[in-house]
Amino acid sequence: MHVGTGRTALFNWLFARHTGGTFIVRIDDTDDERSDPLFEADILDGLRWLGLEWDEGVAVGGPHGSYRQSDRYPRYREAAEILVAEGTAYPCFCTPAELDERRKQVEAAGRPPGYDGRCRTIEQSVAAARRAAGETAAIRLAITRPGATEFTDLIRGLIRVDHENLDDFVLLRSDGRPTYHLASTVDDVDYQITHVARGEDLLPSTPRHIQLALALRAEVPIYAHIPLIHGTDGKRLSKRHGAKAVIEYREAGYLPEALANYLCLLGWSPGEDLTVFPLSLAIERFELSAVSKNPAVFDIAKLDWMNGEHVRALPSEEFMATARPFIEAGLGHELTLEQRSRFAEMAPLIQERTKLLSEIAGQVRFLFVDEVDFDADSWNKVMTADAGAVLDAALMRLTEVGDWSTAEIEASLRSMIEELGLNARKGLQPLRVAITGSTVSPPLFESMAVLGREVTLKRLAKARFRLSG
Q1: How confident is the model at residue 242 (pLDDT cuts 50, 70, 90)?
Q2: Distance (Å, rounded) from C-alpha 77 to C-alpha 60?
Q3: What pLDDT, in 10s, does the model give residues 257-272?
Q4: At what angle do helices 424-436 and 453-468 cross, to 10 degrees?
Q5: Which of 293, 452, 438 is nearest to 374 (CA)?
Q6: What is the DSSP string of 63-88?
Q7: Angle of helix 3-19 relative to helix 256-264, nearest 10 degrees?
């Protein structure tokens, strides 16, 4: 489930919660090539991670069986045969080769594509006899002509499609498998769906679904077609824009609250120029009719910023519990009780600076290893001619510090760089690299205090030896 599908699911969920409705999750798995238990698990996992628990449907149950279309083939065939018997649908005996040849002729003549209705003229009794004799046939809906389908889209307003542009589309394939149109519409009818909110790429299907619902003598749902998501370059969202499957965002260190918050803003706003807000507020204010008609722009930089805002808003205990799996994955082992205590001391400083949870492991690794690995770029950048004198002076000064505390360490080192006539960058960055292995790390003085005097002096000495060698 990618972010576009996640955003559509979120808007459906918000609408259902806002109106006191029922949010239903069904699995459309009639396409064997695109259906896989792993895909289903990914979809359900993504919904749960985003906090979009459903009231009825697959995995939670309800009055309509398994909520998987693959288990409802008999029902779809029954619906198609009823329409044939009533004369609102008909068997089509055209073979794929014949259809392809006629399609090419239509294209060559510059006429609109679509089925030409050849089998519609076959007498109903003749068609029934041919099928009874074993001849295979698809089932097509007989669209009324002349005519038009009109409906009011909650987002786009009044839409009218002339039936000259609507062919007699297939409901049931010749092998008995239902098309998307038949399965989805019959499900909508049977599940008493009142509102369908989906991507605008499915807008061309809506007149077909309305005509089919009318043929089934069912009430037509209210539709809302949500604009697609584009990248910052104005093109349809893809992986090159940073788009991932929803679950990949979890693995990349995003909070579900942050991603849900950001997806809310892709085409909708709660008003008052609010950008960071909980889903409870979105539920209170959400209306499908307030969704923009224009494509939304997905900006990964804004999502990163928003994730940082949500990270900083976490209670400290929750932040540590949320960050710990990322740290342990980076280290390759669970934190000991002593290491957890060490992280707890640094956690407030880490939390203030974190955008992605996946960044934390690299930032705090130096706290939990015996020997730091020096980042080559960081070393080459700051271990210049002045660095040796800085390391020597720091070793002498820190050896003499009485109370090994953040305040005492800071006072000693700031006095040192003042005497050396260096600014903070030249005087402290070599120490940061020696202690943490990188120029990007938590605050230096606090890091030294947490590491302790012995480890700090050992790392400074190691860096000084390497610099000399």
Answers
A1: low
A2: 26
A3: 999 999 999 999 999 9
A4: 100
A5: 438
A6: TTTT-BGGG-HHHHHHHHHHHHHHTS
A7: 80
CA distance 241 to 85: 51
Most distant CA atoms of the chain, gap in Å: 105
Quick one: which of 440, 442, 441, 444 has its CA closest to 427?
Answer: 444
What is the token pair recorded at 364?
A: 């705090």
How far from chain centre, in Å, is Cα 451? 39
| DSSP strand pairing (170-172 vs 138-141) | antiparallel
Sign of the torsion formed by the C-alpha atoms of 182, 187, 193 and 198 = negative
Q: Which residues, including other chains, have CB under 8 Å from residue 14's CB and lie 6 or more apart?
A: 264, 279, 282, 283, 286
Report the candidate in 199, 274, 249 with the shortest Cα–Cα distance to residue 229: 199
Q: What is the DSSP letter of 273?
A: T
Residue whose structure tokens are 């050896």: 399
Distance CA 466, CA 469 (A): 5
Q: What is the pLDDT of residue 114?
A: 85
Query: How many residues are given for the chain?
Result: 469
Cis status, amide bond into 325, omega within 30 of 0: no
**Domains of the chain with bracketed CATH:** 72-192 (3.90.800.10), 314-367 (1.10.8), 376-468 (1.10.10.350)
Contacts of residue 402, Cβ cutoff 8 Å, sequence gap at least 6? 408
CB 386 within 8 A of CB 431: no
The CA distances from residue 92 to 118, 125, 137, 168, in Å, are 8, 14, 5, 10
87-129 pLDDT, tens digit per residue, is: 999 999 999 999 999 888 888 888 878 898 999 999 999 999 9
Catalytic positions: 239
Would you say residue 318 has pLDDT above 70?
yes
